[in-house]
Structures are given as structure tokens and as C-alpha cells.
Amino acid sequence: MGDLEIRPATADDLPAIVAMLADDPLGAQRESPDDLTPYLTAWERLASDPSQHVVVAVREGRVVGTLQLTVIPGLSRRGATRSIIEGVRVHADERGSGLGTRFIEWAIDESRRQGCQLVQLTSDASRTDAHRFYERLGFTASHVGFKLQL
Amino acid sequence: MGDLEIRPATADDLPAIVAMLADDPLGAQRESPDDLTPYLTAWERLASDPSQHVVVAVREGRVVGTLQLTVIPGLSRRGATRSIIEGVRVHADERGSGLGTRFIEWAIDESRRQGCQLVQLTSDASRTDAHRFYERLGFTASHVGFKLQL
């Protein structure tokens, strides 16, 4: 396989990103790859917020992964800045290729560069394979993640 | 008890906020209420970031609670904006007064006002009382929260 590049996403990457968000057991029910309008609106907000880093992984000119890193300053833990990883998706063709690991390692390195003392993420309780994957990368499953739909 | 006001925090509230962060079984080990320098540095960053809302609850002129609400735009869930609640602390004298409920209800209402479709938070697995509290307020413990210290 050709070289892998991880770079900031652009609006042109949105169709490929949304296709990956939808190609997932949970995502299939909540995404609309045939209607990009809501994603374009969200993109405007993401692109103008310096705390947001949406990146894509590209192999041979093709977008094969995406994740969103958010940098959050805070007061607790002696004024620690933390990062949150959200929306990690790897193209079906790339599963098992090591891209997931490369991707999370990129997010950890970037968090360090941004002065974060903590990286955090939540993973749906049903994604047990993902849980083992994050633990192998050094994460601790120390918290319970609560969500409330508005 | 007198009326309760929830308002944006100011730099003058930092000593009271840090005292509450430290007055907690987990916080006692990781905060430094005698040295506010790192908190003042973090405060500069928080105050200049429009996605960050650090608030305090005040009763009879005294700060009795704090929380941080972060608004995060995103692509997944049809470009949903979510909010994250962090650093919730209620003064020891106020526990059982209903302030915790008022506070989280404030955060939910504010999230709605900010156009969020989802409110999320993580709670240390050891805080089982807090878990029941969030479930009573409508949150679902659907996720596992992973952290990595840098």
C-alpha cells in the first residue's frame, strides 16, 4: 500500500468524510450522506474555530480516515488543558492496516504539541473491539460516559 | 437559604473555584489551592475562548458551585453541535440543597440556547452517587470514558 498522509481536512473532503461516518453500524442510522447541507453548515463553524482540528488520512489520493481533535482549556488538575478525540472513522478497506493506531498516535502527538496534559475520548459501550484497541494504546477506561439527546 | 444566582465566573472567583476543586476525594491529590499561578494562566485562555463557559453558583454573595460548559461543533450526527460539562463542583455546605440539579439543568438549558443537539459528560467510575444523579436527570450511561495522561 502507498504512503499514508495525515493532513487538515478541507471542505472538498466532506463527501468522503460523511460517507465514512455513515458506513458504520451506529452511523448508518444517524447520518445523511445524500444530503450534505447540514455538514456544510457545521463545517463553517469547525473551520473558524481554532480549537478544532478535523483531519483526514489520505492514501494514494483517497481519503481513508477521519477524526476530530478538540483542545479544551480548563481549571481542574492545576489548570490542565485537555484534548478530546471524536468522530474517529477508518474506511472499511483500511481496517487492520494499522491506520487506526497511526491515527490515534497522531492525535496524541498533536495533543502534546498543543500543550495538553490529558487526552480523552468516549466510545459507545457496544464497541468492545474499540475498547481493547484504546487500552492497547495506553488509555485507561476510568470513566463512565453519559449522554443526553436534546 | 437565600436565592441562588448562576452567572459567568470572573478572575475574582478563582480562589473560591480552586478551593472547591481541591475539596474532593480525587481533587485533593491533584490541585494546588495555595498556588493560583497555573489557574490564572488557564483562566486567560478560558476567558478568550468563546466556546468556553465557566460559571459559578452564588448564594448570599458566596460562591457555592462551579462548572465548565464547552460547546463543540462537529460533523457526525448530521453536523451536530454538542456540549461537554466538566469540572462540576458543589460546596460541601450545599450538598443535598438541590444545587447540583439546578446546575445541571442550567447547563442543559444553556446547551439548548447554544444550538446543541447533545450534552455529554464523563464521571469517574468510582463516583457511583454521581452516576445515579445524572441518570435521574435523563442522561444515559451509554459510553465508556477513556483517558490518557501525557
UniProtKB/TrEMBL annotation, chains A, B:
<dbReference type="Pfam" id="PF00583">
    <property type="entry name" value="Acetyltransf_1"/>
</dbReference>
<feature type="domain" description="N-acetyltransferase">
    <location>
        <begin position="4"/>
        <end position="150"/>
    </location>
</feature>
<protein>
    <submittedName>
        <fullName>GNAT family N-acetyltransferase</fullName>
    </submittedName>
</protein>
<keyword id="KW-0012">Acyltransferase</keyword>
<dbReference type="InterPro" id="IPR000182">
    <property type="entry name" value="GNAT_dom"/>
</dbReference>
<dbReference type="InterPro" id="IPR016181">
    <property type="entry name" value="Acyl_CoA_acyltransferase"/>
</dbReference>
<keyword id="KW-0808">Transferase</keyword>
<dbReference type="InterPro" id="IPR050832">
    <property type="entry name" value="Bact_Acetyltransf"/>
</dbReference>
